[in-house]
Amino acid sequence: MRIANRRSRVSQLVLVSMLCTGACSRATHLAATWHDPAAANTKFNRLVTVFVSNDESTRRSIEERLASKFTHATPSYRVLPSMEGIDAATVRAKLREAGYDGALIMRVIDVSERTSYVSGQYWGPSYGFGAYWNSAWAYPYDPGYVVTDHIVTVETEIYALAEDRLAFAARSETLNKSSFNSLIDSIMRHIDEQLRHDNLIAVRDSGLTRHVA
């Protein structure tokens, strides 16, 4: 009976470790951020969201999701249906003519893999001679396992269009995304926290929105 219980406890420890590696590693973190100190005095009344992608359906879907995070934000595809053959000066002029004073631009800059080894479970604070004796005979080898994390690196920048000035920039890294939607939501949660910390523009949160940048 003790041997069976010991086997069960070791199996549970391995399962919890695997679940934590698979679920906890889904988090996003901001690897680098920057903001213009003068941006604290700026207010964006109308923001346009841009996702850089050659796939039009992907671009539109993500721009819609980004726009939903802010008050008075518009996906860029509604203003600029096609980016083909349009230079930066023309884009900026069209956005300013349409009344947009801020722009959020997001793009994927890298997708990579990272492999790590998770060791097996052997010792713990409750170990006594009897427990070790039983586990040594009943479960002499508790193998580890290899985990491969998929890392998506994304760059997000916010510009003040009137002055053509960068107000905020961030590079995020997200592990093991399950979908583009979950990736965007995870990134924007972290960016929202950083923007609040820097006293910049805030993302919609539980129906409440600040739009002071």
SSE layout and pairing:
Elements: H1 2-23, E1 28-35, E2 47-51, H2 56-67, E3 73-75, H3 76-79, H4 88-97, E4 102-118, H5 129-138, E5 145-160, E6 165-175, H6 180-197
Parallel strand pairs: 2-3, 2-4
Antiparallel strand pairs: 1-6, 4-5, 5-6
Helix pairs in contact: 1-5
Walk me through what this model shows.
The chain is of the alpha/beta class. The protein has a domain at 28-115 and 148-197: Rossmann fold. The chain contains six helices and six strands. It has helices at 2-23, 56-67, 76-79, 88-97, 129-138, 180-197, and strands at residues 28-35, 47-51, 73-75, 102-118, 145-160, 165-175. A six-stranded mixed beta sheet has the order 1-6-5-4-2-3. Strand 2, helix 2 and strand 3 form a beta-alpha-beta unit. Helix 1 packs across helix 5 (129-138). The longest helix has 22 residues, at 2-23. The chain is elongated. 22% of the residues are buried. The model is unreliable at 1-25 and 205-213 (pLDDT under 50).
> Looking at the structure, what is the overall shape?
elongated
| Multimeric status of the protein | single chain
How helical, in percent, are the residues?
A: 25-40%
Average predicted local confidence, pLDDT: 77
As laid out across the biggest beta sheet, the strand order is 1-6-5-4-2-3
- Would you identify the regions where 5 or more consecutive residues have pLDDT less than 50? 1-25, 205-213
Strand content: 25-35%
Instruction: Give the H and E element order.
Output: HEEHEHHEHEEH
Rg from C-alpha positions?
24 Å
CATH class value of the domain at 28-115 and 148-197: Alpha Beta
